[in-house]
Design goal:
The structure holds 2 protein chains of 2 kinds. By secondary structure, chain A is mostly beta strands. Helix content of chain A is 8%, strand content 33%. Chain A has 1 helix and 8 strands. In chain A, the strands form 2 sheets. A 5-stranded mixed sheet of chain A has the order 2-1-7-5-6, with helices on one face. In chain A, strands 4-3-8 form a 3-stranded mixed sheet, with no helix packed on it. In chain A, a hairpin with a 2-residue loop joins β1 and β2. In chain A, 48% of the residues are buried. Chain B has 3 domains: 216 residues, FAD/NAD(P)-binding domain (3-Layer(bba) Sandwich), CATH 3.50.50.60; 145 residues, 3-Layer(bba) Sandwich (FAD/NAD(P)-binding domain); 59 residues, no CATH class. The radius of gyration of chain B is 22 Å and the shape is globular. At the A-B interface, α1, β4 and β6 of A face β8 and α3 of B.
Chain lengths: 90, 440
């Protein structure tokens, strides 16, 4: 693995991506389009606005909960997990 | 907190960069705050995979030369990957901004005497059945993923909605090897399209409009006007898009529906100003007749209704990078005048040429804006189960019930449903719903 690649995992599966990608970009580059289940109906969600506005792409990264995958860069060793989000307002 | 500084500029797109340069150049101490990793905003989005590597492929290279001067601007302190979560203005006129990184974390404050709001716009998407399926994204998201990370969402896609963004996005996806099945533009104005797109949003990043059309023609990508994606279907991601022919008011014509197999759909209906900060500071808004989407109200010097608070670029309802940049220079100078770094006479002199150029740029942009009016026939696209508020999963039928119960605006709907109360705080559904609820 070259210095411009990053190793991470999604729900336990080992994956790679280019360094500099966001978590959302890295998942899409691996063919994964959804990584969150909605709080009311459990529907799958992934990238929608791509600019940090919609909060659809929330994902858990180890102990960090509800991270916006479209904004945060993927890091070496990140354990990314499907986010079963709670409602923002409780 | 130590020391109140002169000017904070929020947003590092063309408007914000220009404002920071102008205020800094007139002797103001400037803090530039932006959520992106580098300067440029959505317009000149940095290439995140190749920072400083080979062949001059630097993020800064996307900036036009005038704005690239930000790299050398010593009066400007740039806080990247930083968002403003709250803002308040005290009786003495000092504005406090609470800022934090992308994952929240510890907030710090920035205290300033003047603010330029250059927060840009989000994309407007009008809800339709299945718009919440994975694989359905804004056109801007598709563009951003491709330009900054080389990533595509699908291999066989539709680009739809209305506005000048559709052709450039479809063209760049096509050039990246994505099979764009079709571009569907709801506005039935075939003759206006290539010309209008010539004034489009991404002048520096992409070839000219005739270029987009040529790219699409070369790859046999049909551009259909007077059509729309009126529904998306699939289980865990979009698998099919339903296309319909529209009448002039955007009502689907009976018998015109048909399906296309796709794995992604990219939609945009133009932009919707990002009004959280202006609202937090109490800035008055306007709703232009041609586009029922609210923007910050400004005077000729880009001062908002709140003293010391200025606005520039898409947040004012302006259209395109050229207008945004010119507004930024004007707002920066205006802030410097407010702080008495520039006498009124000197301000007039300093901004004379700028005003003339801005007037011309605005006339061109207005023509483009008027070429893509939203039409209320869209209200026939959602069905009872269509999710309107993506956060709280409020359905079209819930909204209908609220309206039947007397709700006439977003606030009233919010009181009886959870619509608009989730993570995004109505930034996605709010403008569309306000449009749906407006009487006209």
């Amino acid at each position: 693995m070259g210095p411009d690649r990053v190793r991470f995992s999604f729900d336990g599966a080992p994956l790679e991506a280019a360094r500099g990608m966001t978590i959302g970009g890295a998942l899409l580059a691996n063919g994964i389009v959804s990584w969150r289940r909605t709080p009311v109906t459990g529907r799958p969600r992934g990238i929608f606005c791509g600019t940090g506005v919609c909060f659809d792409c929330l994902v858990d990264v180890a102990e960090r909960r509800a991270v916006r995958a479209c904004l945060v860069l993927v890091g070496d060793g990140d354990q990314v997990r499907t986010s079963v989000s709670r409602r923002a307002s409780g | 907190m130590s020391g109140v500084i002169d000017v904070a500029v929020v947003g590092a797109g063309p408007a914000g960069l220009a404002a920071a340069l102008a205020a800094g150049g007139l002797g103001c101490e400037v803090t530039l705050i932006d959520a992106g990793t580098g300067p440029g905003g959505q317009m000149y989005r940095p290439d995140m995979l190749f920072p400083g590597r080979g062949q001059g492929r630097r993020a800064a290279d996307r900036l036009p030369p005038g704005l690239a001067r930000i790299r050398q601007a010593r009066q400007v302190r740039h806080l990247a990957v930083t968002s403003v979560s709250r803002a308040a203005r005290d009786h003495g006129g000092v504005v406090t901004l609470w800022v934090a990184g992308p994952e929240g974390g510890a907030e710090t404050t920035v205290e300033v005497r003047a603010v330029v709001l250059a927060t840009g716009a989000a994309e407007l998407v009008l809800p339709f059945p299945g718009w919440d399926l994975p694989g359905v994204t804004t056109a801007g998201a598709a563009q951003a993923l491709l330009t900054s990370q080389g990533v595509t969402v699908g291999r066989r896609v539709l680009v739809g909605g209305s506005g000048p963004l559709l052709l450039p996005v479809a063209a760049s996806l096509t050039q990246a090897g994505v099979h764009v099945v079709m571009v569907v533009e709801a506005t039935p104005a075939p003759a206006a399209l290539p010309q209008a797109a010539g004034l489009a949003a991404f002048p520096a990043q992409l070839p000219a409009a005739s270029g987009h059309a040529a790219v699409l023609a070369r790859h046999s990508v049909p551009v259909r006007t007077g059509y729309a994606v009126v529904a998306c279907q699939g289980t865990d991601r979009v698998e099919r898009a339903v296309i319909a022919r529209l009448d002039r008011d955007w009502r689907p014509l009976p018998g015109s529906r048909y399906e296309e197999t796709v794995d992604a759909v990219h939609v945009s209906f133009g932009s919707s100003p990002a009004l959280e900060l202006p609202r937090a500071l109490g800035c008055a808004e306007v709703r232009p007749a041609s586009r029922p989407v609210a923007a910050v109200a400004c005077d000729a010097d880009l001062a908002t209704s709140v003293p010391g608070v200025f606005a520039a670029g898409e947040v004012t309802g302006a259209c395109g990078a050229d207008v945004a940049e010119l507004e930024g220079y004007l707002a920066g100078a205006s802030a410097a005048r407010y702080l008495s770094r520039l006498a009124p006479d000197a301000y007039q002199e300093h901004t004379r040429t700028l005003r003339a150029r801005l007037g011309n740029a605005r006339r061109l942009a207005a023509r483009l804006d008027e070429a893509y009016p939203l039409k209320r026939g869209w209200l026939e696209w959602p069905d009872a189960g269509t999710v309107v508020c993506r956060c709280e999963e409020t359905r079209w039928s819930d909204i209908g019930a609220a309206v039947a119960g007397g709700a006439r605006d977003l606030r009233a709907v919010r009181e009886v449903t959870r619509c608009g109360t989730g993570y995004c705080q109505a930034r996605v559904c709010g403008p569309a719903l306000t449009y749906a609820l407006s009487a006209t």
